[in-house]
Amino acid sequence: MQRKLRMGMIGGGKDAFIGAVHRLAANMDGLIELTAGALSVNPEVGYESGKMLFLPDNRIYKNYEEMLHAESKLPADEKIDFVTIVTPNFAHFAPAMLALDLGFNVVIEKPMTLTLEEAKQLDTKVKETGLTLCLTHTYSGYPMVKQAKQMISEGVLGEVRKIIVEYPQGWLSTLSEREGNAQAAWRTDPSKTGKSGSMGDIGTHAAHLAEYISGLKINKICADLSIVVPGRAIDDDGNVLLKFDNGSNGVLIASQVAAGEENALKIKIYGEKGGLEWHQMEPNTLIVKWLNQPAQIYRTGNGYIGSFAKHNTRTPGGHPEGYLEAFANIYRNFALTIDAKLNNQKPTDEMLDFPNTEDGIRGMAFIENVVNSSNSDQKWWDYKI
Amino acid sequence: MQRKLRMGMIGGGKDAFIGAVHRLAANMDGLIELTAGALSVNPEVGYESGKMLFLPDNRIYKNYEEMLHAESKLPADEKIDFVTIVTPNFAHFAPAMLALDLGFNVVIEKPMTLTLEEAKQLDTKVKETGLTLCLTHTYSGYPMVKQAKQMISEGVLGEVRKIIVEYPQGWLSTLSEREGNAQAAWRTDPSKTGKSGSMGDIGTHAAHLAEYISGLKINKICADLSIVVPGRAIDDDGNVLLKFDNGSNGVLIASQVAAGEENALKIKIYGEKGGLEWHQMEPNTLIVKWLNQPAQIYRTGNGYIGSFAKHNTRTPGGHPEGYLEAFANIYRNFALTIDAKLNNQKPTDEMLDFPNTEDGIRGMAFIENVVNSSNSDQKWWDYKI
Amino acid sequence: MQRKLRMGMIGGGKDAFIGAVHRLAANMDGLIELTAGALSVNPEVGYESGKMLFLPDNRIYKNYEEMLHAESKLPADEKIDFVTIVTPNFAHFAPAMLALDLGFNVVIEKPMTLTLEEAKQLDTKVKETGLTLCLTHTYSGYPMVKQAKQMISEGVLGEVRKIIVEYPQGWLSTLSEREGNAQAAWRTDPSKTGKSGSMGDIGTHAAHLAEYISGLKINKICADLSIVVPGRAIDDDGNVLLKFDNGSNGVLIASQVAAGEENALKIKIYGEKGGLEWHQMEPNTLIVKWLNQPAQIYRTGNGYIGSFAKHNTRTPGGHPEGYLEAFANIYRNFALTIDAKLNNQKPTDEMLDFPNTEDGIRGMAFIENVVNSSNSDQKWWDYKI
Amino acid sequence: MQRKLRMGMIGGGKDAFIGAVHRLAANMDGLIELTAGALSVNPEVGYESGKMLFLPDNRIYKNYEEMLHAESKLPADEKIDFVTIVTPNFAHFAPAMLALDLGFNVVIEKPMTLTLEEAKQLDTKVKETGLTLCLTHTYSGYPMVKQAKQMISEGVLGEVRKIIVEYPQGWLSTLSEREGNAQAAWRTDPSKTGKSGSMGDIGTHAAHLAEYISGLKINKICADLSIVVPGRAIDDDGNVLLKFDNGSNGVLIASQVAAGEENALKIKIYGEKGGLEWHQMEPNTLIVKWLNQPAQIYRTGNGYIGSFAKHNTRTPGGHPEGYLEAFANIYRNFALTIDAKLNNQKPTDEMLDFPNTEDGIRGMAFIENVVNSSNSDQKWWDYKI
């Protein structure tokens, strides 16, 4: 790269959780600089947040429309290269569409939109504009997730037969949305979070992980969503039986009321010859199990690791990378792709390996199908997209 | 106890897997001696097996009928106190009924019978005779399983909200029943194993464990059984959504084609205040998770452990007990109960804590309901017993 | 075997810890029966203990001399085949010598004697009599310990370069010998336990494990023993630098005041090509690490396991065996060896793989050398035997 | 902070390992910008490296002298605030002294200098100038290390009794310094790395960690350094017995030839009431063991965590932070301290919690004392500083 890319941020004011994570991830590799921001629906909070992030006054905007229009008129060597949208789910679509219309590439927090319909429109817009949209399904940024995907695609497990993915969290075990927890408040409000709570917030991650690693697509489900905590307005827990397009079966469990769990996303994939197991909370380890040989412990940063994991690792074996590095991998690959396109080069497969609108459509489809399946008395629900 | 109890074994000749396990478990505490045997359908194998076990010639029988009738005529201070039935599933019911009719207590390998109907008849017979029947759901014999049960019954987790129990094995990942594996042969033959393969062999253990620890009863299910290995005659894999009688939900996964897995039974139970996690392959540890406090690592053999776990532990903390000790706990409690009854004493709750015909009925009901649910297009299947 | 071997026990009355463990181990495989006992220095306790173990009155003896003399006069098909000595350390030597003199084989709890000199005399006596003596260094009975030994002897690690063995316990963190803890009382009394507390009780296990697995011999040490708990009469903690006879180095740590530890014996052995790691508290797993390949998880009961581990395993993979099974392996191999000798057959290498007087001498030498080294200002202490 | 701090880097050109790590750590929080660099002794490599890092031509310097003199003449709102020295050990002292003389704060990779004498001079210079020097002992930047320190300082373990710290790596298991491995080459060359290989490179980290967490100081040692790989010019392995200033004992093990190990730094500290265990490769977990209660699993990002760990954490529980975040904590605290001083404010205790010249002196003293002890026949070597 010749220069750092310039980022404008929509949402992510002080005290927001995921906005800060995006900045940490974007900062890490020194390829991106935060240049502009419309950081809050409250202009005062937005200004204060911008100052804390060392933005000059003239790059702190009152709202995203102002930012996008103003930045679009700046000279090419000043204006932002892309926007990052880290608002609650309901406020993803409009700024993303406007950004694309005005020629900006887009990073967007998952789930991509509030509805499947919006997701499809966004996909169409991306294809029309030729711009790049990156969806931050963080967990696919981990090197050992990429290692798992690469090993399966190379056939080391044979045909995939079964996938178990579980994502238990405990942070909504009480009615914290009524106790002043702002994160809980919007994430349990259907008007802001969408049709499902547990499945929108974390189930989509689990579904994405299963499809990303296995290379398969879910095509039938049988879902059971629950409101476990009395008084909550939206599901906080769900269990889903899965069928994949190669005929294999699976289970997806997502819960926000698994008391005592932190963020315990785990996946196990079994094939004809062996199985893989990965735990997000110990992300640098991938256990590979074999039918008649000892299981193996694959670890990031070692010489035997494949090209995709290697491209997404910064440190030698035993120097643990974590969630922020996984997130940074997505930003780095996005940045390298943008840079390649700016320079009329073809991005490598490794660079292009970040979630995009197709993943976003599948994520929204997952939410809608799971909700519909859960509401149905029919056992198997054919996936509709 | 005044003397060792005398055991007669039905099945379990040389090369049988589970018969050897029963003998190890019965031997361990020195409370039981193997006194007689009808160890094989093949009398030569039976005789040879008896000699290897140091049985005198006159206590090695050609078949179970011969043994039960002959033993019933021996003097009280010579004849066996109980029989252990370790034949394949289809050959549990008849010897158990005859043994009870002739006045012998019974230990029986799970699943208790071939059908639910047989299970009910056996239960009736036990109640009529006043004799004791013990069903060897091994995993409920582990001290930390009992600790989990005791903690939940004492309310430390509050109301139970969610149960995830998974039981992956990989030993049937190939069509080994066609390659001379005798264990695989009968366990995949519906005439010998019953209506379900994966659910009869291991799913019943998982269901028993969930109900045993939680104190809840499954009352609705949605099951998806599969024959994963082409050419197999019976399911080797299944995923089941669960509803319990307190309204909580759960998932049960049992697979014999999870390539690379050994015997990886795990259970997680979440309540209002925290959660419990137990892994059979590291059985001396129970992780107890809390909403706002550090998780705790409960370990067998420590002073802070409850009365049930304590009663079922032989060694101090850090001296691992395993599968055979869990099995031996069931035999020991059965023996202590028999002894108490022989001496007109009331067994303690700890002694009585072994699976019985009620568990056997629930196990057979589980199999039948899961098969019926799997065959149905209806989403939720009401448990029928 | 044609019949069970008959065991006479010296020590191990009710409430004794290690005597009960020996009985569980001897019982398990059904190859040994407890036939006689001199179970306590207190004849009343001895009698009561014998009755609890279902011994007939005429085989419950007042003391070991009475038992050994009486048994030696019984007919061959009645008298005991061997004695097991489970008294405190100071009371090992005399009964062992008498038993050998009267023609009985011997099992003896470690450390073998009170002094190195006694150990040498016992070794001489064993060689003179041609009888078999078995020393219960339990940890060498674990299958994965045997697997480690076999792999190293086959050269998979190349030359061994470094050994780290640590054995932390916490049970003597307070002055419990003054609070009525009988185990603590004799084990911290130099007249009963010998010259060292921590090294006699657990350091010898660690040293034996290191030499057993590696096939190397310690030949230089630098020891630092401490009395950590004020008021204690003997060391409760020690750290030792090691040199082995191939020039490699090592560290041995044994502590009884590592508060919060149970029985956390661990060993790591590094060679030119890789390393091995084994933890006693998760004994069915052996981690094998490689220079440029993923580490492997060797597990008991799998097909890829070597002949020694296989011979010492009762259950399939994933059915955990533990401390009692490791102990039972020592008894079983001892019994198979005795039986082979009784039948003028040559025991296999696998049968003979139990600790003997040579290990006992090395154990006592370890204690004496460590104490001498600790008392010396000289850095390296040449091992004297 | 009002603005980002400006960093000049000495060393760390392309292909250098630790320079890249420093940049990632400095970038992450958006508080520091790389403004200038003298990135290589080879000016061409330095220029190319500077361009890859987007430095303007006039801030890419040929050598550190040029950079420091030129920057010192720039206006206050342009010139760098501090330099980061990431050269091999022998090239730390001179640039650090010049930087301080010219008024720049300093970050310096460990070990601080080549000799203890240099360390003392640097400490004197820092005190004379009133500037801030930060030594990057990375591992003290981990939140759970800080949690351990805070818990011990608050007395939860009672008096500390024993410390076991081990740091096994395997990367020097072969003579890779002769095979073109540049990292191996300088780290095994005494003229560039200093008096000890294993102890300078990793033993100092282990010693720092032990003293940092426990609050104790090593005051006596007995060291055994080895050259394990034939042909190597400097020790690659060492074992050290420790005595601390409160009379407690310990063991420190550092090895670069522990084949198959990555970067497996672990520490266990035992006190009167319990113990702590932390593993660098799973850094978000701190196990706290208790005498008579279940062990606890402390985890980063939870509400029950102390002020120091909290200040050094960016993500909620279950979103793992790693090595780079630990490193970034050191940079952030250094930056916050510099900023506070620039604004005549008093840094908080949390901000000031990064290693400084006192740690640097102790690190160099550790190396020299260990080497001297290893060369001595005397058992205990009194620490000399």
Automatic annotation (TrEMBL), chains A, B, C, D:
Task: Tell me what this protein is called.
Answer: Gfo/Idh/MocA family oxidoreductase
Source species? Pedobacter jejuensis
**Span of domain Gfo/Idh/MocA-like oxidoreductase N-terminal:** 60-135
**GFO/IDH/MocA-like oxidoreductase domain segment(s):** 145-277
What GO molecular-function term can you cite, just one? nucleotide binding
Taken from the record, one Pfam family name reads GFO_IDH_MocA_C3
Q: Which InterPro entries match?
A: Gfo/Idh/MocA-like_OxRdtase_N (IPR000683), Gfo/Idh/MocA_oxidoreduct (IPR051317), GFO_IDH_MocA-like_dom (IPR055170), NAD(P)-bd_dom_sf (IPR036291)
